[in-house]
Design goal:
9 strands, alpha+beta, three-stranded antiparallel beta sheet, Muramoyl-pentapeptide Carboxypeptidase, domain 2
């Protein structure tokens, strides 16, 4: 499927933002049409981008002891999973969790400020409103092994993460055309009896 893109409006040229197509986004004052594979996969907007039940994971499980927030249910499942991984001699940490619409827009703007096109940035980062991180149920994970796909942690997650309600959101050779993100795992839930 070909990439289709265009700048819809320049900020200030039209006063009524409600007339924008549903699959467009504003970055640094300009509106862009969402491109494949994100097209049709909108998760939310500015008004509904912050879940009400966010909880910080223990800093020992975050890279650089960062403050990383996810939903309470996601937090409980993640802690159970990472503790079992450690018992199995596997170590990884969370690099990021919840990210707001505005934070995602800032990530985009920073990369575009370096001369990259909207379309180029969208190959590797979800546009604001399209990122699973805004749900508070997704993590980007990290280990000492780079790339993450070559790590013992990734192999362990492929076998065990489902037991804790986590899935690899963007697997290799995605049928929907998303880039492979071996480090990106999302909590979708399991029966409480399944959690260890």
């Amino acid at each position: 499927m070909p990439l289709i893109f265009l700048i819809i409006y320049v900020s200030g040229s039209h006063g009524d933002e409600n007339k924008l197509p549903p699959d467009s986004v504003k970055i640094s004052g300009k509106y862009y049409q969402i491109v494949y594979p994100w097209l049709g996969h909108k998760i939310g907007d500015k008004s509904d981008s912050i879940p009400g039940n966010l909880s910080m994971i223990p800093r020992e499980y975050a890279c650089d002891s960062s403050r990383i927030f996810v939903t309470q249910e996601t937090r409980v499942a993640f802690i159970s999973m990472i503790k079992q991984a450690e018992k199995d001699g596997v170590f990884f940490k969370a690099r990021s969790g919840f990210r707001s619409y505005s934070y995602q827009a800032q990530l985009f703007a920073a990369r575009m400020a370096k001369g990259r096109s909207f379309e180029h940035v969208a190959k590797n980062i979800a546009p604001p409103g399209y990122s699973q991180h805004m749900l508070g149920t997704a993590f980007d994970l990290a280990t000492d092994t780079v790339p993450f796909a070559d790590s013992k942690a990734y192999r362990w997650l492929k076998v065990n993460a489902g037991n804790y309600g986590f899935i690899e959101s963007y697997p290799e050779n995605s049928e929907l055309g998303f880039s492979w993100e071996a480090w990106h795992w999302r909590y979708i839930g399991v029966d409480n009896d399944t959690l260890r």
